[in-house]
Amino acid sequence: xxxxxxxxxxxxxxxxxxxxxxxxxxSATRSHKLKNAITIREVNRRGPYIGLVTxxxxxxxxxxxxxxxxxxxxxxxxxxSGRRFRIGKIHGKKVVYVRCGxxxxxxxxxxxQMIDVFNMKGIVHFGIAGNINNSMSIGDVSIPKxxxxxxxxxxxxxxxxEGGDYAAYLDFGKYTVPQGxxxxxxxxxxxxxxxxxxxxSIGHKNSPKKVFWIxxxxxxxxxxxxxxxxxxxxxxxATLCLPEKPKLVVGLKAATANTFVDNAAYRxxxxxxxxxxxxxxxxxxxxxxxxxxxxPVIVIRGLSDLAGAQTGDNAVRKFGSxxxxxxxxxxxxxxxxxxxxxxxxxxx
Length: 348
Prior knowledge:
Helix content is 34%, strand content 25%. By secondary structure, the chain is of the alpha/beta class.
């Protein structure tokens, strides 16, 4: 009988062990969330903040190496969803900084999380980009007034005539070599679609507005216009310099897609069709997220390469760090220009 009791106890002991293994992580998770909630409440009491969103390590290193970032002594950072949100001050302005990661999903997720979690005034998004405009050069900095999602399109059947609700078409047959005369291509064409913008500014709830361009905040663009004469770096080091002094331009257009553009023909198509001067992989996602939530946003992008117009290797490996540094300098100067205290509603 004793042996039977011992046998019956074994499954119970096994269940108890398994249950304990499952309970401990859940308890630890709840504890971690509670700790984060307390920290967030304390951080937000010190706000509001300007949000700073960049993309990858080269940009982060250039930014943190170029600015006098003073971490919050009590809560210098908060780790959320695998990202580190740094809390502090730059030139007396309270900021929350995060590196979002490459691509539109990362950009939108990090921006929305920043807006949801922290007491924000608005978002400054920055990084490097490909140059689409022949009047611009590597090392220049662009602060666009409008950004489109150039990666939102339908791939059409080759035998389907153009028509329907599209902003533009790319007909692959027009790029046939050698004739380039629009000969039929098995790839057919693609039709560029419109974003569906859900926004607090739209009167009817749950009823999106179709838009092709996302506008950055006009008041912030006017503030940034004073940066056009600022000094930008020309050299990566003593032996690697650009042929001309870089410039900063406010008010151009930009394109975003989950595609790194390194093709001369597609570069020309983007410029001729949409009039964009730069191409990147995050800006429209950040801008659309901010506009949807009713927050001011500005985008600052340094041109690191010619997006395929060069001969040989892409120049981003040579001049990416210089473009990132010039961008960081522009961001710093913009932060300096922001009034120490202003009403968020005046910028919406």
